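Collaborator request, handled under Task 6.
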Amino acid sequence: MTMTIDPVQQDVSVRLDDRARFMYAVLAVTDWPQKSQAKKPHGTHLHARATRKFLEPHQDHPAVQTMQRLLDQGVTLAQFQTLAAHMTWPEMTVTTAPAWMPAEWPAQLKAFFEQSRLTAFWNAEQSVWLAARAESERVFHGVHFKPFLKPFLGEVAEKLVFIPSILFPANEESTVRQDGELICIAPPRLAWGDSPPWPFDEDPAYIRRVALMQYGHELMADYLAHHPDALGPLAEQGLPVDAKFKQRYPTWQEQFTALFTSALAALYLEQHVNKKEADSYVLMERKMHGVTNLPGTVSVLRRYRSDFLSGKYKSLADFLPVFPKQLRVANRIVSL
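Structure tokens returned to the collaborator:
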């Protein structure tokens, strides 16, 4: 039985989307699963493995071969899912096609969907998808991201949507914009070793953090794009980040957005879960992902939020000019 949630009680709506899961079903029979395992071995959902096995007889289909070429050319998961979000279903027509999409691909995808009899497979596997949706609904019940985001990004006009995925990729999220919606498509948390992923609601703090970071990343990219005058002098100053971080995030905007979203997640956990959860996340990011500036960034954003609420700043744009200096000071303090 699916749990019904009153959308007024929360900021994040949860739903399933055939277009999203279809795109990831095609992904299942490319070389993505093998390459993902080669980077870091991990357990995958039983449904993901079953999907791959079910579709293996069709792995030479033109639709799959086209996706493989696009992957090899560097097309991202977010680009695939953005295209899917703008397709009609089940016709799979595209009114405005992105430049990277081969004109014949929608017709190939439709033929693949029909020839593989994927609808029958989904019907047989319906219970696992309904379980993922119900688990996700419990995770976001009563969650309010927009008031938390307001001091940093102002009023968030977009409707926030979460789509759970139990397919490949098992270790990567994507975000899609469509018709006033900001959509996070995410898998459940990975377990250790070869164990299957956790149920979505077994670690609610993790799923909320993932979604918040996805929304925050997209919203911050928009925010910076709308404040170009402030970015010139800031880019010249640079940020106090190490060489590895600069290599991973070459531009000022990318560096700031990465630091911001990580610190945003820590602040949310601190404020809406508990300090222990926040501290554990900060420690993990420092040790596993090399975000050594995260404690300092959290301190700076915590101070900014306090100053914003007291009226010292009208918006984050007012604060951006002093951010690099304050981060340098904060880094020195937290390293003592």
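The cover message to the collaborator said: "The CA atoms of residues 31 and 43 lie 17 Å apart. The first strand starts at residue 12 and ends at 14. Please let us know whether this matches your experimental observations."
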